[in-house]
Amino acid sequence: MKSTDRSSADHPFERVSEVSSTDGFDLSRWLEEHVLVPARILAEDRKTIIGASILTVYVLMGTVGVLLVPEPTTDGPRLQAPFQSLEYPLGTDAMGHDLLAMIVHATPQMLQMILAGAVFATAVATAVGTVAGYKGGLVDDVLTLIMDVMLTIPGLPLIIVLAATIEPSNPLVIGVLLTINTWAGLARTIRAEVLSLRNDNYVEASRLMGTPTWRIIAEDIVPNIMPYVLINFMMAGRSVIFSAVGLYFLGLLPFTALNWGVILDMASSNGALSSTSTIHWVIVPTVVIIALSYGLIMLSQGMDRLFNPRVRARKRD
Amino acid sequence: MTNWLTKRLVKAALTVWGVVTLTFALSHLMPGGPAQHIQAQLVSREGGSIDPERLNQLMERYTNVQPDKPVWQQYIDYVTAVLQGDLGESIIRNEPVVDIIADALPWTIFVMGLSLILTFVIGITLGAVMAYYEGTRFDFLSSTIGTVLNSTPFYLLGLLLLFVFAYQVNLLPTGGNMNPRTEPGLNYPFIRGVLIHATLPVLSMVLTEAGGWALSMRGNSISILGEEYLRVARLRGLSDRRIAFTYIGRNAILPLYTNFMIAIGFVIGGSVILEQVFTYEGIGYYMVDAVQANDHPLVMGTFLVLTLAVVFGLLFADLTYGKLDPRIAAGGESDEEY
């Protein structure tokens, strides 16, 4: 609003809106604001490119790759080293399975787990964190207490105890189970952020106008914490990888499908650690796991730059 | 101050109660759950014809619960027993769960506590140095290495370290807690053995975690370097040392508090996988063993004690944190900001 504009200041009721297209939805403008500008910023950022490319490779592997690469069989030579033949580019294990095929065919299930876990953790965290921070009072006290208690229970042992009792086999259920208390830490951060937002002018204005609470939260608060939410979406995905692989590696999750952790379990229990001629059996899945998790971290750092103009400006100078 | 302290203590007590209730619910309310499983195990061990009264006695010995009593009575019996330090008896080891845990707990606390402290000290120091040399090649290189290490699950680094230092170079042991030929006590061979056996587990934890700490510390320090009060401090002619420690250090470390709380839970919980990789006989090692053998009293006991370790770790962190940030000890709302 131009408060210095004399003519409109003199005749406040005769002022004509300067924006002509208030009622019509301006598609090109919306595209420019919400798609093109962020895309341009993202495309300029090296970290985002690295992260997005890595993630794309895994998604392709889990979708197209599964169709292209035949399922692992025990036909191959035993314990062939990687990069020796085109037929078994990543080598084979002690049973003659092609490692590349095993890695590829474990991907879809892994991606489902990551997605389910990350969606669950961020959704619960955002809901609990915003309501606690915005509502305050007793609601806040109760929710904060729940968050603190969840934060206190050590995650992995809790997951192990639950997994041993429920014995889940659906990757989506496993994903949710693995983030059963990951959300609490994020919810706490979001709550702190909302606490500082709730007294901002525009939120107060909405409140005075009698806007219902859920709309204030959805329209005024949530867009402001989206950066945190998206960054932590990536981090929750990373923690799903860590715990899923770890639990499959220890044989604590039911062995229903191939998993990178299962490959590691077979490798280490068959003595792959003891010799240089077998160590590729451990190294191949390890590199695959680290690369995916590196991609997620890169993407989250890139996101930080997208949403945080200050970080961007710093890099410009 | 007392108000704040009471709140913290109530929170800790509530957590313990919650977890005890959870273990009870999982063991005894799940249809076809562990309790029935234990019954089946006992029946097959005692031979097919076990008299129901004897079965009840055995169930009580192992799980502190008599299945023929009403649920509320079972719950009260269970909570009372746990509060008295009776966690039942292990099925595969035929030993009270408390005894097994008492042997294992010091090892877990030693190796995980050492990891936590080293991670914290190294991460914070490195992060501060990186912030100081921001934009240089050193900063870029250590940021990259830090991110890659932070993308590595600690147990995978552990496997690779085992391969290199234990199997290839034969420099360090492949597993165990101590040298079996030494006499536990304050003597050099024993202590040396303990440290040698702890090296790889601690190393795999510290190397993978310190990078993340360094990166957050770097970020916090850099954002503080641009603050007004720092310029004022410089204009006042305060010494660099004082600025570095009291102005930058303190204010950059404070926001890491939540991370530290999460780290305590993560480190203690992580012992479950780490100890299995290095066959380090701490609580986590016994927990995995118990899960694989369906030894539910031992599973629940180890879970309960791991939680207690985190509860007390956090309580200790909270109490000492007040020294670092006077606003918290004052009991104001300001601690909620972090």
Write up this protein:
The complex is a heterodimer of chains A (317) and B (338). Chain A has 317 residues and is mainly alpha-helical. Chain A has helices at residues 6-10, 27-44, 46-68, 99-135, 137-152, 155-166, 171-178, 183-197, 201-208, 213-249, 260-269, 280-307, 309-316. The two termini of chain A are 31 Å apart. Chain B contains 14 helices and no strands. With 338 residues, chain B is an all-alpha fold. Chain B folds into 2 domains: 1-86, no CATH class; 107-322, Orthogonal Bundle (MetI-like fold). At the A-B interface, α5, α6, α8, α10 and α12 of A face α1, α6, α7, α11 and α12 of B.
Assigned CATH architecture of the largest domain in chain B: Orthogonal Bundle
Provide the CATH superfamily of chain A: MetI-like
Strand content of chain B: under 5%
CATH topology of the largest domain in chain B: MetI-like fold
The computed structural class of chain B is: mainly alpha
Q: What's the CATH topology label of chain A? A: MetI-like fold
Question: Which architecture name of chain A does CATH use?
Answer: Orthogonal Bundle
Please give the CATH class of the largest domain in chain B.
Answer: Mainly Alpha
Helix and strand content put the structural class of chain A at: mainly alpha
GO biological process, one term (chain B): transmembrane transport
Pfam family, one (chain B): BPD_transp_1
Subcellular location (chain B): Cell membrane; Membrane
Protein name (chain B): Peptide/nickel transport system permease protein
